[in-house]
Amino acid sequence: MRAPDHPILAKGDVLLAVENVSLGFGGVKALTDVSFDIRKSEIRAIIGPNGAGKTSMLNCINGFYYPTEGSITFQGLKRPKMRPYEAARGGIARTFQNVALFKSMSTLDNIMAGRSIKMRSNFFWQLFRHGPAMREEVEHRKVVEEIIDFLEIQHIRKTPVGRLPYGLQKRVELARALAMEPELLLLDEPMAGMNLEEKEDMSRFIIEVNQQFGTTIALIEHDMGVVMDLSDRVVVLEYGRKIADGTPDEVKRDQRVIDAYLGVAH
Amino acid sequence: MDILYKIFIEPFVFMGEAPDLLIQTLWEGLVSGILYALIALGFVLIFKASGVFNFAQGIMVVFSALILVGLYEQGVPALLALLLTGGAMLILALTVERVVLRPLVNQPDIILFMATFGLTYFLIGFGELIFGGSPKEMITSELYLPQGTTEVEMLGGFVRFQHLDIAATVIASIMIGLLAVFFSKTRIGRALRAVADSHKAALSVGISLNQIWVIVWFAAGIVALVAGIMWGARAGVSFSLQIIALKALPVLILGGFTSIPGAIIGGLIIGIGEKLGEFYWGPLVGGGIETWLAYVIALLFLLYRPQGLFGEKIIERI
């Protein structure tokens, strides 16, 4: 509802800062004292073994969970409890580990749903599909068509997404997130379950989004080759704690990271 | 053989012999069918947005009619009372969202269903406390609803059209049309369908569940109000009106719980089927089959299409 009231950030400024975040569910600690930042226009990877708390971290960032301790500052604004729709309206878009689409709706409608936060025309005009509502619909359709072209999904425009193969569903989900024109795009395992060719396509799209629109991207991914190629900086979590943070090369050489992935002799 | 003749031949012969009576029966079926569809729509709206079967929809029909009549009895002009009742339904929607739905978010469906049971009994008690338990007259003429009848000569007889029925059909059709367009064509409609498909994804694109819930409960409240006025004008305003709302159940089984066209067509099938059954086949068993025929039709449908005429197919991967 409210227009985001924040300073315009230059490339490289801190867009989102996670400070000493802990998250617990009853006795289970999902995250313990995690701090890192995401800078404007970078691709930031969050990696770690299964159960390390990566998805929990994303859920905290977009407001599905509230951290039990610590704070998250987005665009210089620290909000103690941010609801998911407030995060979305503030410019945080995301995709999910196991695709969350509107299955009975067409690809087009799914992507249009991503535009809903940008639409402002009132009830009355919408009901009669005239005047401002119609102009608005046309204008947003144009943006949506651009995204469809960009992601090469023209041929499935009218297909109900429930019927699409998994790889394309993931692409539609990305399209919907892009339709929000986000400041920060969170991708939760964008390449899980994809074959090599689909992975290459997806990598290309991620890089193009980042370079063409300057969108900041935080992604969780298990394919180390992809992570090392795509990301500018990597943060590594294990058992809910941060164990390393740095460029892909630094992280790759870090002894704790190697131990976490390969195991240590006890 | 005689009984077979009475079931399969005689009623149709009778229909052919007296087409004016057939038209009359069809018309009455159409009127109640459209009103059933309107009530069923109230259920569909809430079911789509929150996956909850709102048991309280029937009492909302009674409650809204009681508020309207009650306000009028207190000396509020009829049209102002209508407006205030609309406001009361908005307050009800806000309260339900805040007090019932929000604390129970992410609970199993059965819990939410039971919560609407609780809401039903609360509204019954609250309604009786304020308005008393005795039946009331709907303020038909004060709301400028037409009364009287027109007889049209056709097919060798007379067909009677009650003006109130005509008005009810027109108003209910307009309501249904507006709601259908609203939910299929507008941004909020798209948001509603999005919420129906996936709460998680809807939240992630900036749709507020709380807002959507208030909107659907308010829409369901307005639908209840219109249904309350129309049924109230035909049968009086009393708590027994909620039984009529339960007729929406077979309509929903027929049409599918999530489909707006399903609610409309289901309503018409039940309404017309019921009246035809009562008039032509009722005498075979001594009449009174109108009260249960709808459920039998629904039961037969359940055997062949458990998801209803237009409901989403239930496919489970093993």
User: What is the ordering of alpha helices and beta strands of chain B?
Assistant: HHHHHEEHHHHHHHH
Helix run count of chain A: 10
Q: What is the end-to-end distance of chain B?
A: 49 Å
Flag low-confidence runs of chain A: none
Task: Label this structure with key terms.
heterodimer, A: 266 residues, alpha/beta, Rossmann fold, 6-stranded mixed sheet, 4-stranded antiparallel sheet, globular, B: 318 residues, mainly alpha, ABC transporter involved in vitamin B12 uptake, BtuC, two-stranded antiparallel ribbon, 13 helices, 4% strand
Describe the structure.
The complex is a heterodimer of chains A (266) and B (318). Chain A starts with 13 loop residues before the first strand and ends with a helix. The mean pLDDT of chain A is 85. By secondary structure, chain A is an alpha/beta fold. In chain A, α3 packs across α5 and α3 packs parallel to α6. Chain A has a six-stranded mixed β-sheet, with helices on both faces. Chain A has a four-stranded antiparallel β-sheet with strand order 2-1-4-5, with helices on one face. Chain A has a domain of 143 residues: Rossmann fold. Helix content of chain A is 39%, strand content 23%. Chain A contains ten helices and ten strands. Chain B is mainly alpha-helical and 318 residues long. Chain B has one domain: ABC transporter involved in vitamin B12 uptake, BtuC (Orthogonal Bundle), CATH 1.10.3470. Helix content of chain B is 72%, strand content 4%. Chain B has 13 helices and two strands, in the order αααααββαααααααα. Chain B has a two-stranded antiparallel sheet. In chain B, 43% of the residues are buried. The mean pLDDT of chain B is 84. Classes of the chains: A alpha/beta (266), B mainly alpha (318). The interface between A and B is medium-sized, with 32 and 25 residues.
Give the topology.
The complex is a heterodimer of chains A (266) and B (318).
Chain A: E1 14-25, E2 28-39, E3 43-47, H1 54-61, E4 69-74, E5 77-78, H2 84-90, E6 92-94, H3 107-115, H4 123-128, H5 131-150, H6 166-179, E7 184-188, H7 196-213, E8 216-220, H8 224-230, E9 233-238, E10 241-246, H9 248-253, H10 255-262
Parallel strand pairs in A: 3-8, 3-9, 6-7, 7-8
Antiparallel strand pairs in A: 1-2, 1-4, 4-5, 9-10
Helix pairs in contact in A: 3-5, 3-6
Chain B: H1 2-17, H2 19-50, H3 57-73, H4 78-101, H5 109-131, E1 149-154, E2 157-162, H6 163-185, H7 187-197, H8 199-204, H9 209-235, H10 241-246, H11 248-255, H12 260-281, H13 290-304
Antiparallel strand pairs in B: 1-2
